[in-house]
From TrEMBL:
Record SMART domains: HTH_ARAC
Pfam families cross-referenced by the UniProt entry: AraC_binding, HTH_18
Keywords, alphabetical: DNA-binding, Transcription, Transcription regulation
Identification of the protein by name: AraC family transcriptional regulator
HTH araC/xylS-type domain segment(s): 189-291
Organism (species): Nibrella saemangeumensis
Length: 292
């Protein structure tokens, strides 16, 4: 792969806020194998590193059209990302991703906000805990992105309105792909999706997984086996990882003591919290607080 970049960050003062979808950033990058990620010329407003991850202020569509890598977010263990995958990033949701070192990848992205964007992505078929959409090598999707770049590069009069229209086309393709994908979801995937949703809503509480299984008219053994099969992790590990990610956010974003954070996140003591955090995250929470 050769290096190829197109980055556009829009001046917030000149954005037409009356539009139903508003573009904040737009980019295309061919990232070669065996080079650090993200690229050092990535826009400062969206730069991140793998250790800390990040959360955005706007929605973002990330399309990986070549190569492969890994993606992880709050409430979701690491997922292998293949070529032809769309990742939907939601405001305020912690995440991180990177290409596999020996493949690199080619990525397109567009960051946006607006009333229609919020309305569409809050529909029942979308879920911040299931942000991955597999569309394959979608010619229409790529062509719409390229037209969007052409409009933004020229920046003729009313280009923001035309760019907004093209973004609506992208969202339409994503919406259609999600609906078609959801039609193929099996009964057991629907149950596990609902269970994940309940765990995310009660992340800082003790959860009786046997009672949870009863509510969905399944056995506890079936739930444990199927959850591991679909998510790649156990019920307890999924719940624990979610609590640790929430704790990491609180360490970065608040001045609460580690003892207070341990209690907020449902751990029995700060000692147990620190020990399990070091085991799972390979760093002491006190070290994160000191670096902050």
């Amino acid at each position: 792969m050769k290096v190829f970049r197109r980055y556009f960050n829009f001046n917030e003062e000149h954005i037409d806020k009356s539009l139903s979808v508003i573009i904040h950033t737009l980019g295309h990058h061919v990232h070669p194998a065996y080079t650090p990620y993200p690229d050092v010329k990535h826009p400062d407003s969206h730069l991140f590193n793998w250790e800390k991850g990040r959360s955005l202020k706007e929605y973002q569509i990330l399309y990986i059209c070549k190569g492969e890598g890994v993606f992880e977010s709050t409430g979701m263990p690491p997922q292998v990302i293949e070529a032809g995958t769309i990742i939907l990033l939601y405001p305020g949701v912690w995440h991180r991703y990177k290409p596999t070192e020996d493949t690199g990848w080619e990525e397109y992205w567009v960051g946006f906000s607006g009333s229609y964007a919020s309305h569409l992505l809050e529909q029942e078929c979308f879920n911040p805990q299931s942000p991955i959409v597999k569309v394959g090598f979608n010619v229409e999707f790529l062509a719409t992105f390229e037209r969007l770049f052409d409009v933004v590069e020229v920046r003729e009069e009313s280009y923001q309105k035309l760019a907004s229209f093209l973004l609506l086309q992208l969202l339409g393709i994503v919406y259609t792909s999600v609906l078609l994908s959801n039609q193929k979801i099996s009964r057991k995937e629907k149950i596990i999706g609902e269970v994940k949703k309940e765990i995310n809503e009660s992340w800082n509480q003790d959860i009786d997984f046997e009672q949870l299984a009863e509510r969905y008219h399944t056995s506890y053994a079936w739930l444990r086996k199927t959850f591991k099969e679909i998510t790649g992790t156990s019920l307890n590990q999924y719940h624990l990882l979610l609590k640790l990610r929430k704790a990491e956010e609180l360490i970065h974003e608040t001045t609460n003591t580690l003892s207070e954070i341990a209690v907020q996140c449902g751990f029995e003591s700060v000692y147990y919290f620190s020990r399990i955090y070091k085991t799972k995250m390979h760093v002491n929470p006190s070290e994160i607080r000191k670096s902050r």
